[in-house]
Request: fold
Amino acid sequence: MTCRILLYSKVGNTLKVGEELAWELGAQLHEIEVPDCEDGFRARLRQRISALLSKEPQVYTSDQPWGKSDLLILGTPACAGRAALPLRQWLATRPALPDRVALLITSEEASCPSSVVEDLTRLIGRNPVAVMYASTTELPTGAWKSRLSQFLDLCVVRYRQSA
Ligand SMILES: Cc1cc2nc3c(=O)[nH]c(=O)nc-3n(C[C@H](O)[C@H](O)[C@H](O)COP(=O)(O)O)c2cc1C
Reply:
């Protein structure tokens, strides 16, 4: 089973959970990079102008056969009730996706924000096979791992059923 994880993580929370999932599933982990991390007024102005002129998404990912994965896990923090912009920008490029897509979401809320799941479900055009959720309060204690085996079962059982 070829499993890939593609995630965006600004501060590192989603990356931390993604690394655990990669370990458990033997998956390849890839990050969406936002290239221009310069700060300040001039840098922000330059980014906005280049975004307006090129209309290209300002994100980079490694070139992988995403659509040929048996399972693709897309990871994002909640941002203003949606998936993070870099992941939405990547999905806007209409990459080939496999039938089985699972989600990894982190946020400050006690339970998984349904608006983020709905946002991603619409953007990927299919129901996710499973959703892994970790809140920021659960991360230091690792309490989110109590849901890990259920998530892995859903990923693997559904793979076995359709293989
Ligand atoms: C700009 C911004 C917007 C956010 N919006 C939300 C939100 O709408 N709901 C929520 O529960 N958490 C929100 N958060 C908190 C992040 O989702 C949370 O800290 C997440 O774990 C960060 O993941 P990361 O370390 O992978 O970037 C927001 C954080 C930032 C910086």
User: Anything to note?
Assistant: The beta strands are 3-7, 28-31, 71-79, 82-83, 101-107, 131-135. The helical segments are 13-25, 41-54, 85-92, 114-124, 148-162.
